[in-house]
Design goal:
The structure holds 2 protein chains of 2 kinds. Chain A has helices at residues 2-30, 38-56, 59-83, 88-106, 126-144, 146-156, 158-163, 168-194, 206-216, 221-244, 250-270, 272-278, and strands at residues 120-121, 124-125. Chain A is mostly helical. Chain A has one domain: ABC transporter involved in vitamin B12 uptake, BtuC. The longest helix of chain A is centred in the N-terminal third of the chain and has 29 residues, at 2-30. Chain A is globular and about 60 Å long. Chain B is of the alpha/beta class. Chain B folds into 3 domains: 3-233, P-loop containing nucleotide triphosphate hydrolases (Rossmann fold), CATH 3.40.50; 239-330 and 418-505, P-loop containing nucleotide triphosphate hydrolases (Rossmann fold); 345-416, no CATH class. In chain B, 32% of the residues lie in helices and 23% in strands. Chain B has helices spanning 43-50, 73-79, 96-103, 110-123, 139-151, 169-184, 196-202, 225-233, 292-300, 323-328, 349-357, 372-385, 402-414, 432-447, 459-465, 488-495, and strands spanning 3-14, 17-28, 32-36, 58-63, 66-68, 81-84, 157-161, 188-192, 205-210, 213-218, 251-258, 272-277, 281-285, 311-313, 316-317, 331-334, 365-366, 369-370, 420-424, 451-455, 468-473, 476-477, 481-482. In chain B, helix 3 packs across helix 4 (110-123), helix 3 (96-103) runs parallel beside helix 5 (139-151) and helix 13 (402-414) packs parallel to helix 14. The longest helix of chain B is centred in the middle third of the chain and has 16 residues, at 169-184. The chains are: A mainly alpha, B alpha/beta. At the A-B interface, helix 6, helix 7 and helix 12 of A face helix 3 of B.
């Protein structure tokens, strides 16, 4: 029983950062913006969070700093793509590369340092609880509030939204900033609550998984919860199975989560109706107001 | 009575084009006022200025006798101007109620609003399901959502841009009842249409635009369709001549229980049966979004049929063949969407010619290398034969106006003299003179022994050129019957689905 609980809590720990980062990206994509820089924003969040916690000695200050760091990166992305109309895909990739490099630079003197981790009760900390609340909040916001409706409208047809007098760029900036804050928080979770330490490139591709999860969830928050936990469970189980010594190559085991992602994405694409109903039609398109 | 809205000497200049040149008109309260004119006459430009989406270069508007500036669509809405667009401004991913909620100021409460929508729409005879996703609705139902959205804002002036082009005759009649009731309640209606008969039935005043200028203001009830057409075009429109052909050739195109899969929001074709003989034009009537494009794709080979013998061309089963193989069998296809489907926007016309004809014109592509001078020659022939007006010798497709590009994409296939021609909306957005040219060319092609299938939403066009008519609704194709057995009423019922076979959903 105790062992079972220990595995369960590691699964939760593996799933939470994916869930938080993907929820942010879901809102960004619902507004019609494709920010591929999740990985970069996460790693910046991880390093700023860890740094702030190390300097102040307070992990909660670290959490705020992680959110702030991710947000700053996303605003850079927003400025380049929404104001300067740079290509979203290329800019997102650049943000990831920048984030990985910049975090290594900032974190040079933080390697091996100790901090007070975010307190937890039986392995459950405030961020885990918050990630569940966030699912409900995002869902409520998108489907039950006027601003949520406006975000979906902007993502569906930005020209019509503009014609109705909505501020397309303003709404998108807000969503991008929210997405950046979530990615930063997800990164901060890794360095402040899970490990807690700073290791170069410690996000290890989780940002990309978060991106895939958004498609996997067909842009629906509740499905994201399921997807993040499915992925978290598989990656932990793959890890646990290695210790059983069944002779399965460890490379194969550690690649299962990614294989499952690919299979899931292919299966999702078969349901065209679900995809057309929820895919933001303007995803990745730059908006220029004519007139 | 006081004029509700008056336009005074409105001028709108785009670059060198005077889209509106000294336009004046006045709309009274409770009046249904028609705005007539050909494509490009400046109707949409004028209406967009009234709705605040464009600003006049000079001139001004008066509202109830007071000079005003309409700075934005929201200013127009605040004034009491509601607009139903030709290309709807609805968000497809949202429900009807959500779409309406977005346009309304005040407290955000979708549930209460749904109730209001249900009541008001039933009250005006325009039933709308507030919970339905726009993507699931037919074009006619979407239009109702737009109208209901306007009505909830208590408009004093309602503008409709070609509202009936997407409706069955019965749906149109229902719309007219609603509009007459609105007018009786004091709401003014500005009604844009090119269907002259319905303008004569519905409107009590009309302003006719040509090349951006007001050329006539009249009472349409006292005019004939021919006299109204003359005002719009400036000259008499040549009638299309279709002699009855008694010498039909063999069956060239046959569909045997053609079905396609429903994919996403696409409409599935169900068991379509059709035989088209050489020498005849068969028209497919129907309201937009009832499977016309899926039908076209299945004929052209863009989507594979359910069985190889579901599509037969000159007796050969080719349901699994792609569009190039079918072209090699002598078939030609003109899709509805001219930019992006029929032509690549950024390609020159000569290159666009190569795209559909590389496999069928001897020597146009030798071992994969394009003979550009030959492509230019063919493009030149098409341009000359179909009077495509252009700015430079070999322009990019996107630089042509819609009507001229349409003439090119139809002409490009007609010039091949194909044995089988399938064309979707041949004269959409083309002015009356050019439309007559295209229609005559379609008939002439058929009379020379080809089988011609015309998919159209324009009933006037269908009755003008078809020998036989079939109706498509929700993916089901009715029997193709001779033109003289169809009445407008019968065709309307068929468009609404009277011929559909009940099936388990």
């Amino acid at each position: 029983m105790e062992q079972f609980y220990a595995i369960a809590i590691t699964i939760v720990g593996a799933s939470t950062p994916l869930l938080i980062a993907a929820l942010g990206e879901l809102v960004v994509e619902r507004s019609g913006v494709l920010n591929l820089g999740v990985e970069g924003m996460m790693i910046i969040g991880a390093v700023t969070g860890f740094g702030a916690a190390y300097v102040t000695g307070n992990p909660y200050v670290g959490i705020l700093a992680a959110i702030f760091g991710g947000m700053l990166m996303s605003l850079l992305f927003g400025f380049l793509t929404l104001t300067l109309l740079a290509n979203q895909v290329a800019t997102g990739l650049a943000i990831t590369l920048l984030g990985i490099g910049l975090s290594a630079l900032i974190g040079e003197n933080l390697v091996g340092k100790q901090i007070t981790r975010v307190p937890n009760f039986q392995g459950v900390d405030i961020l885990i609880v918050f990630s569940f609340i966030l699912v409900g909040l995002v869902s409520w916001f998108l489907f039950r509030t006027r601003y949520g409706l406006m975000v979906r409208a902007v993502g569906d047809n930005h020209s019509s939204a503009h014609a109705m007098g909505f501020s397309v760029i303003g709404l998108r900036y807000a969503c991008v900033a929210f997405g950046g804050g979530c990615a930063g928080l997800a990164g901060g979770y890794l360095s402040l609550a899970q490990t807690p330490q700073w290791v170069e490139n410690m996000t290890a591709g989780r940002g990309w998984i978060a991106l895939a999860l958004v498609v996997f969830a067909t842009w629906l928050p509740q499905r994201l919860l399921f997807g993040a936990y499915l992925f978290g469970t598989i990656s932990i189980l793959a890890f646990t199975v290695q210790t059983f010594g069944w002779g399965i190559p460890s490379q194969l085991l550690s690649s299962t989560p990614y294989l499952v992602t690919v299979v899931a994405l292919v299966l999702i694409s078969r349901n065209k109706r679900l995809l057309t109903a929820n895919t933001p039609a303007c995803l990745g398109q730059a908006f220029v107001a004519d007139r | 009575m006081v004029d509700l809205l008056a336009a005074k000497n409105i001028v709108k200049i785009f670059g060198t084009l005077r889209a509106n040149d000294d336009v004046s008109l006045s709309v009274k309260q409770g009046e249904i006022h028609a705005l007539l004119g050909e494509n490009g006459a400046g109707k949409s430009t004028l209406v967009k200025m009234i709705y605040g989406a464009l600003q006049p270069s000079s001139g001004h508007f008066e509202w109830l006798g007071k000079q005003i500036a309409i700075e934005s669509p929201s200013a127009a809405r605040a004034l009491g101007v509601g607009m139903v667009f030709q290309h709807f401004s609805l968000f497809e991913a949202l429900t009807a109620a959500e779409n309406i909620a977005l346009a309304l100021p005040g407290k955000f409460d979708v549930n209460t609003l749904s109730e209001r929508v249900r009541k008001l729409s039933a009250d005006y005879g325009l039933p709308v399901d507030p919970a339905a996703s726009i993507a699931d609705l037919s074009v006619g139902q979407r239009q109702r959502v737009e109208i209901v959205r306007c009505l909830l804002q208590n408009p004093k002036l309602l503008i409709l841009d070609e509202p009936t082009s997407v409706l069955t005759p019965q749906e149109a009649d229902q719309l007219f009842i609603t509009l007459r009731r609105l007018a009786a309640e004091g709401c003014a209606v500005l009604y844009i249409s090119h269907r002259l008969e319905e303008v004569r039935q519905l409107c009590s005043a009309a302003t006719v635009l040509r090349h951006g200028k007001v050329v006539a203001a009249c009472d349409p009830r006292k005019e004939t369709p021919a006299s109204l057409a003359r005002m719009m075009v400036g000259t008499d429109v040549e009638a299309v001549h279709a002699t009855i052909n008694h010498h039909l050739g063999p069956v060239r195109l046959a569909l045997n229980a053609l079905s396609t899969k429903a994919d996403g929001f696409a409409v599935a074709m169900k068991n379509a049966m059709l035989e088209v003989r050489g020498g005849e034009v068969v028209a497919i009537a129907g309201v937009a979004g009832n499977g016309q494009s899926e039908f076209f794709d299945a004929l052209s080979g863009e989507t594979a049929a359910n069985r190889a013998d579901a599509v037969m061309m000159d007796g050969v089963p080719c349901g699994f063949e792609n569009i190039t193989r079918r072209r090699k069998r002598g078939a030609a296809f003109v899709p509805e969407e001219r930019l992006g489907h029929a032509a690549v926007p950024a390609f020159a016309l000569s290159n666009n010619t190569v795209l559909t004809r590389h496999a069928v014109d001897e020597g146009l592509a030798k071992r994969g290398v394009i003979n550009l001078s030959m492509a230019m020659r063919i493009a030149g022939k098409v341009i000359a034969a179909y009077d495509v007006r252009k700015g430079k010798p070999d322009p990019e497709a996107r630089s042509l106006s819609g009507g001229n590009l349409q003439k090119f994409t139809v002409g490009r296939e007609l010039e091949r003299r194909p044995g089988i021609l399938v064309v979707n909306q041949p004269t959409w957005g083309v002015d009356a003179g050019a439309a007559a040219t295209i229609r005559q060319a379609l008939i002439d092609l058929a009379r020379s022994g080809s089988a011609v299938v015309v998919i159209s939403q324009d009933l006037d066009e269908i009755f003008e050129i078809a020998d036989r008519i079939a109706v498509i609704s929700r993916g089901q194709l009715s029997r193709a019957e001779p033109k003289n057995t169809w009445t407008l009423e019968k065709i309307g019922l068929a468009m609404a689905g009277a011929h559909e076979v009940a099936h388990a959903a």
